[in-house]
């Protein structure tokens, strides 16, 4: 079958998964994108990967822009998002969604959140990562949304069961009213019973956790470097005590719930 000059034939096993990953990341470096494709068994050759990215860039389906620190990042182009939307991808399209959160802070947050996800993928622990794009779609369009736009919702198979939690990544401090508003929202959260805040350092951990003493769900706090080093064995704490314990233990349902299951 012939194709018109300048057209592109999409690979179900490589092109579409690559576009999906760019969309779900928001912003992603070339090395991160290759690692995502490799770890999810969609790409095994760096030359092939770079060729694939170039052809998507040439057609504006993926966009490249500079990032803090000198390394460029990829984001989804409007046409790329339209193609994915037609394939059922959870994708809110419009100037507010695709073009507004493009400041340096948003880029750094996305790139560092990618590393949090990649650490989980590299571990080989069976897990499902629901990205922020899907969380936002559920919240805006459905009747079964969460109370806020989490950075991700994560399911992890662990021991004989499954651990589920919403993930928030805080790389810098925000105003007190921001956390007070979130703590108030969490009183109405019914879709998840645990929220994990990963923060960049212990001073920020101490600042953020004090706003969640009255949270109705379990809100746990840990430092991101401990996640990269220990994953679900990382130490976490709650607002009411400085004592820490492993995240996997904190996320376990109460013994009464386990025994009745």
Structure description:
- By secondary structure, the chain is an alpha+beta fold.
- It is built from twelve helices and ten strands.
- The chain has a five-stranded mixed beta sheet. The chain has a three-stranded antiparallel beta sheet with strand order 1-3-2.
- A hairpin with a 7-residue loop joins strand 2 (62-65) and strand 3.
- It is globular, with a radius of gyration of 20 Å.
Q: Mean pLDDT score, rounded?
A: 88
Structural class estimated from helices and strands: alpha+beta
Unreliable spans:
1-6, 95-100, 256-261
Q: Indicate the proportion of strand residues.
A: 15-25%
Helical proportion? 40-55%
Number of strands: 10
Question: What separation lies between the terminal Cα atoms?
Answer: 55 Å
Helix tally equals 12
Shape, principal axes of CA atoms: globular
The run of helices and strands is HEHHEEHHHEHEEHEHEHEEHH
Largest beta sheet: what is the strand line-up?
4-5-6-7-8
The biggest beta sheet reads: 5 strands, mixed
Radius of gyration: 20 Å
Count up the domains.
2
Keywords:
261 residues, alpha+beta, Arc Repressor Mutant, subunit A, 2 domains, 5-stranded mixed β-sheet, 3-stranded antiparallel β-sheet, 12 helices, globular, disordered C terminus
Break the fold down into its secondary structure elements and pairings.
Blueprint: H1 15-25, E1 28-29, H2 30-39, H3 46-58, E2 62-65, E3 73-76, H4 78-86, H5 95-98, H6 104-123, E4 127-131, H7 132-141, E5 152-158, E6 161-170, H8 176-186, E7 194-199, H9 202-209, E8 218-223, H10 224-230, E9 235-238, E10 241-246, H11 247-250, H12 255-260
Parallel strand pairs: 6-7, 7-8
Antiparallel strand pairs: 1-3, 2-3, 4-5, 5-6, 9-10
Helix pairs in contact: 2-6
């Amino acid at each position: 079958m012939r194709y018109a000059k300048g057209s592109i034939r999409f690979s179900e096993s490589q092109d579409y998964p690559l576009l999906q990953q760019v969309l779900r990341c928001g912003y992603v470096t070339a090395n991160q994108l290759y690692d995502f494709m490799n770890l999810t068994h969609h790409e095994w050759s760096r030359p092939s990967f770079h060729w694939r990215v170039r052809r998507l860039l040439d057609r504006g389906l993926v966009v490249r822009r500079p990032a803090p620190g000198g390394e460029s990042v990829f984001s989804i182009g409007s046409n790329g998002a339209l193609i994915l939307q037609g394939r059922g991808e959870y994708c809110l399209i419009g100037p507010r969604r695709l073009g507004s959160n493009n400041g340096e802070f948003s880029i750094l947050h996305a790139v560092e959140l990618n590393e949090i996800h990649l650490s989980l993928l590299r571990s080989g622990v069976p897990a499902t990562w629901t990205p922020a794009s899907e969380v936002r779609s559920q919240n805006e369009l459905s009747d079964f949304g969460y109370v806020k736009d989490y950075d991700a919702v994560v399911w992890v198979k662990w021991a004989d069961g499954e651990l589920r939690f919403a993930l928030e990544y805080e790389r810098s401090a925000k105003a007190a009213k921001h956390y007070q508003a979130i703590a108030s929202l969490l009183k109405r959260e019914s879709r998840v019973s645990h929220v994990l805040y990963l923060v960049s350092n212990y001073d920020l951990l101490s600042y953020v956790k004090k706003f969640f003493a009255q949270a109705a769900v379990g809100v746990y706090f840990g430092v991101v470097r401990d996640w990269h080093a220990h994953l679900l064995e990382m130490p976490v704490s709650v607002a009411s005590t400085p004592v820490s314990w492993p995240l996997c233990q904190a996320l376990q349902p109460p013994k009464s719930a386990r025994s009745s299951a």
